[in-house]
Amino acid sequence: MLLNKYVDAKSGETLSLYSPHDESLVTDNIQVADQTDVEAAVVAARIAFKGEWSRFTAAQRTKVMMKFADLVDEHASEIAECEAKAMGQPINIATMVVGIVSAVFRYYAGWTDKLNGEQYPEQDGMYKIVQYDPIGVCAGIGAWNASPAFFAFKVAPAVAVGCTFIYKGSEKSPLGVLQFGELAKEAGFPPGVINIITGDGRAGSMLASHMDINKISFTGSVFAGKKVQEQAAKSNLKRVVLELGGKSPSLIFPDADMENALVHHSQNFLFNTGQACIAASRTFVHEDIAEKFIEQLKARFQQFTHTIGSPLDPKTFLGPLVDGKQFERVMQFLEIGKSEAELVTGGGRHGKSGWYIEPTIFLNPKDDARIYREEIFGPVITIRTFKTEEEAIELANDTSYGLSSCIFTSSASRALRIARQLDAGNVNINTWQTLSPNTPFGGYKQSGLGRECGKQGLMHYVEAKTITINMSV
Ligand code: TXE
Q1: Has 243 been annotated as catalytic?
Q2: Is the distance from CB of 11 to CB of 34 less than 8 angstroms?
Q3: What keywords appear on the UniProt entry (predicted)?
Q4: pLDDT per residue as tens digits for the range 385-396
Q5: Separation of 85 CA from ligand 1 center, angstroms?
Q6: Which atom of ligand 1 is the closest one to the Cα of 278?
Q7: Are 387 and 286 in contact (CB under 8 A)?
Q8: How many CB atoms lie within 10 A of CB 361?
Q9: Per-residue pLDDT averaged across 180-188, rounded?
Q10: To which H or E segment does residue 94 belong?
């Protein structure tokens, strides 16, 4: 989507998309952007940034952002259907994800006239003002597991402060995001403000290394995230925000509400078929309640097997994995896991067609087990037991990731005592990870760099400028 029009890529190359439900062809016409296409998008974004978009008042930016949010809500079912067809996200979950888009755009539409600067009284004859300028032309690269939401987390704060944007969704779920191009035009965004390109890692790499892009925000694997940061440094040192993977811990104490813990470790863990960076896939349960918890969780996982179905069926809760590559990857982890831990339930393919996996529980993985150390990104949870609070904290923090974490206890003091000691950007007490537009989301350690959502997410799209005035002349 360039200058508010859909255009074919100059590359002439296309990608095909197959349904993860039955491997049927969804489309063979996903355009693959090449350097010429990326260049055209950057030029359009730069012209808009310096031109018409810079003349929009804050109130006018708010107006088009709010209109965009309304249009997204009006077209939620079509957008959700695109996601269900492309990556197999159950239609009800996909519709919920689309709801995040309008919520985030409405939240940031409220910020357009509230990012005030600072003023410092005259000292040593100098009067100082700090103002926040929009960074300029920004780019975003998204993953496939919540494509519309990743678009909103990146584009909404950027346009709210006056930046312009080039967005590339994942080649595994490009269709929903492509709908936003038409809606942005209808909402009143001038040509060049929001540009959407499609393609794979090559197009992403062109964005990360482009000399006239001032900032890039990436959601995806640690491997690709490091490549983006490397390319950003080697090109023009563009600013970088990375939202990467996780292998998040969850601690369950004897005084936890058992039903609440079971719901969160079954239904909420299996949400999106476990394809969530925030999934607490390393569960630690106190030894006093372990046997009962594991027995009941096993029963829940087996019940959820009956919710597996077509992504387009509103009754489906568990859909297929996004594609054959992910399916093979998770199946490999299942086989490896059988030699690294005790298989409690699941452990194989569900059915004979489509990328469906049985909800799986592994118990007591070895400390160096791959299923315990690596992000699997599927409906696969590992469980270990612990005796003391200190041991639980040590186990929880023993990972290269630091995205999310959960604590299940009825003691507020214990919850806060532990929360302070967990190396994670998000700590959830008696609940699962919930994303909210007004609080920062991001990870410690190799789970990322920077934050999205909240004021912190906004500040990544401005540069602070200190103006000093000599009051003696
Ligand atoms: O991610 P990739 P994939 C993890 C999860 C998953 C694994 C692989 O473990 O199994 O990553 O998933 C673009 N320069 N997460 O293959 O490869 C690519 O086109 C610039 C966790 O989907 O990271 C796509 O748009 N861009 C994560 C995006 O990066 C590049 C969600 C993501 O692709 C690039 C997704 C490059 N060198 C996967 N290589 C989360 N945090 O939720 C690829 N891309």
Answers
A1: yes
A2: yes
A3: Oxidoreductase
A4: 999 999 999 999
A5: 19
A6: 42
A7: yes
A8: 26
A9: 97
A10: helix 91-109
281 CA to centre of own chain:
17
pLDDT at residue 433 in the model: 85
- Tens digit of each residue's pLDDT (9 = 90 or more) over 397-416: 999 999 999 999 999 999 99
For residue 231, the ligand 1 atom closest to its alpha carbon is 14
Per-residue confidence band for 361, with pLDDT thresholds at 50, 70 and 90? very high
* Ligand 1 mean position, distance from CA 208 (Å): 14
Residue 10 has pLDDT above 90, yes or no: no
Distance 206 CA to ligand 1 centre (A): 15
Atom 27 of ligand 1, nearest CA residue: 220
CA pair distance 82, 273, nearest whole angstrom: 18
From the CB of 14, is ligand 1 less than 6 Å away? no
| Domain boundaries of the chain, sorted by first residue | 14-245+447-468, 249-432
Residue 123 has pLDDT above 90, yes or no: no
User: Closest ligand 1 atom, CA of 277?
Assistant: 42
Per-residue confidence (pLDDT) for residue 399, from 0 to 100: 97
220 lines ligand 1 (CB under 6 A): yes
CATH of domain 249-432: 3.40.309.10
Per-residue pLDDT band at 197 (split at 50, 70, 90): very high
Q: How confident is the model at residue 3 (pLDDT cuts 50, 70, 90)?
A: confident
Distance CA 179, CA 197 (A): 12
Span from the CA of 221 to the centroid of ligand 1 (angstroms):
4
Quote the CA–CA distance of 215 and 461 in Å, as a whole number.
Answer: 8
> For ligand 1, atom 22, which residue shows the shortest CA distance?
143
The CB of 452 under 6 Å from ligand 1? The reply is no
In short, whether 228's Cβ falls inside 6 Å of ligand 1 is yes
Closest ligand 1 atom, residue 403 Cα: 41
What pLDDT was estimated at residue 11?
84
Task: Please name the residue whose Cα sits nearest to atom 11 of ligand 1.
Answer: 221
- Selecting among 171, 243, 340, 358, the annotated active-site residue is 243
Please list the residues that pair with 195 across neighbouring strands.
Answer: 166
Which are the contacts of 130, defined by CB distance < 8 A and separation ≥ 6? 117, 118, 119, 120, 464, 465, 466, 467
Fold of 14-245+447-468: Aldehyde Dehydrogenase; Chain A, domain 1 (3.40.605)
Edge to edge, the sheet with strand 239-243 lists: 194-197, 164-168, 137-141, 215-219, 239-243, 448-449
Cα-to-centroid distance, 19 and ligand 1 (Å): 19
